[in-house]
Amino acid sequence: MYYAFCATALETDGMNQICATTITYRVLKQEHVIRLLVSEKVKAAKALRELDQTADIARHFSDLVSKLEPSPVPDGPCADGLGTPSAESLRTTLLRAGPRSGQHGEALS
Fold first, then answer.
1. In sequence order, what are the residues at sequence separation of 6 or more whose Cβ sits closer than 8 angstroms to the Cβ of residue 75?
2. How many domains does the chain have?
3. Based on CB atoms within 10 Å of each CB, which residue in 13, 26, 74, 85 is the most buried?
């Protein structure tokens, strides 16, 4: 009788421990899932803030660009408007200049 009682008590205690462990595991798992969800929401909020900041920067840049006045296209060797001489104008200038005294080399043809 005593052994049967002890066996039942151990079995019951074991089942209680298993139940307690299972419940604890489920609670911890839910907490973990909740933490993951919160973490994902925080990441999403940060990403949205970064997107908003990027959009603000883009709008600001667009505003700055729209305020720029187009500069007139100059005449002469810098006819592209960017201040960069064209290859043809450089070639012509070099041909006109020719080799200078004291320099070795040939004029471009």
1. none
2. 2
3. 85
